[in-house]
C-alpha cells in the first residue's frame, strides 16, 4: 500500500475510506481469532493437567497409559 502510486488511491476500491475500513476489520478479525485460540488452548491444557493429576491420584497405572497418549494429542492439536 505504501509503494503504490498516488493514482492508485483514486480508484473506488482503493479509496482512503475503504482501505481504513478494511484495515480496521482485518485487525479485529485477527484479534478475535487469536484470543479464541488462546482461550481454547488454555482450557484444553488445564483440563489435561487436571485429568492426569486426578488419574495419578486414583489409578496411577491408568494415568500412565493416558500420559502415553499425550504426544498424539499434542500433535493433533498442532495439526489443527
From TrEMBL:
Superkingdom of this protein's organism: Eukaryota
Q: Which organism is it from?
A: Nymphaea colorata
> Taking every annotated instance into account, which residue ranges of this chain make up the domain ABC transmembrane type-1?
1-80
Q: Which Gene3D superfamilies match?
A: ABC transporter type 1, transmembrane domain
Please list every transmembrane segment annotated in the UniProt record, as residue ranges.
62-79
Q: Which UniProt keywords apply?
A: Membrane, Transmembrane, Transmembrane helix
Topological category with respect to the lipid bilayer: Multi-pass membrane protein
Offer a single GO CC term for the protein: membrane
Please state the protein's primary subcellular location: membrane
Name of this protein: ABC transmembrane type-1 domain-containing protein
Which residues fall in a coiled-coil region? none
Compartment(s) where it occurs, according to its Swiss-Prot or TrEMBL record: Membrane
List the GO molecular function terms.
ABC-type transporter activity; ATP binding
Amino acid at each position: 500500500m505504501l509503494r503504490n502510486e498516488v493514482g492508485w488511491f483514486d480508484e473506488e476500491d482503493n479509496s482512503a475510506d475503504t482501505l481504513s475500513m478494511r484495515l480496521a476489520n482485518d485487525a479485529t478479525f485477527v484479534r478475535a481469532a487469536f484470543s479464541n485460540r488462546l482461550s481454547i488452548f488454555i482450557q484444553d491444557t488445564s483440563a489435561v493437567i487436571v485429568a492426569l493429576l486426578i488419574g495419578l491420584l486414583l489409578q496411577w497405572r491408568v494415568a500412565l497409559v493416558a500420559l502415553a497418549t499425550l504426544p498424539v494429542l499434542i500433535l493433533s492439536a498442532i495439526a489443527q
